[in-house]
Write a structure and sequence with these properties.
Layout: H1 7-23, H2 25-34, E1 37-43, E2 47-52, E3 60-63, E4 72-77, H3 78-85, H4 91-97, E5 100-103, H5 106-110, H6 113-116, H7 119-133
Parallel strand pairs: 1-4
Antiparallel strand pairs: 1-2, 2-3, 4-5
Helix pairs in contact: 1-7
């Protein structure tokens, strides 16, 4: 059984996670400095989340389809995303084994992993909170 019951639950958890990342000055400044637009494609349940820091001043989080042209696209099952944010899935290994696939200069996105690592401590609490309120 997938960790997320449906796309709405996936979106609720990921939106809260990215809002907390955005609110953290260390993580957000590093993401803004990269000026990347990254789109995550999720399966089971399906969904899209786009993280846009291209203007260097504000991180924009879009759930679902949007017009922003991603520089990097990463596809995975929603359970793989959950394992990643739980600190249990190494994205480099997941890319090599086919659990994740990517388009674009994924090395730029992988370079930001140390920056978002503090979110691994935030994520379990968000999942727990969202599951209780569902």
């Amino acid at each position: 059984m997938p960790i997320f019951a449906d796309t709405n639950e996936l979106y609720s958890v990921m939106h809260e996670l990215w809002n907390q990342i955005k609110a953290d000055p260390v993580m957000s400044q590093a993401l803004l400095k990269s000026q990347l637009i990254v789109r995550f494609h999720y399966k089971d349940p399906d969904g899209y989340i786009t993280i846009d820091g291209s203007d260097g001043s504000e991180i924009k989080i879009t759930l679902g389809d949007c017009d922003a042209k991603p520089m990097v696209e990463v596809s995975m099952k929603s359970d793989v995303a959950h394992a990643f944010w739980s600190g249990k899935e190494n994205p480099a290994v997941a890319l090599l084994t086919g659990k994740m696939s990517s388009k674009g200069p994924v090395n730029k996105a992988l370079a930001l992993l140390p920056v978002v690592r503090p979110a691994f401590h935030i994520y379990p609490g968000i999942v727990e909170k969202m599951k209780k309120s569902a």
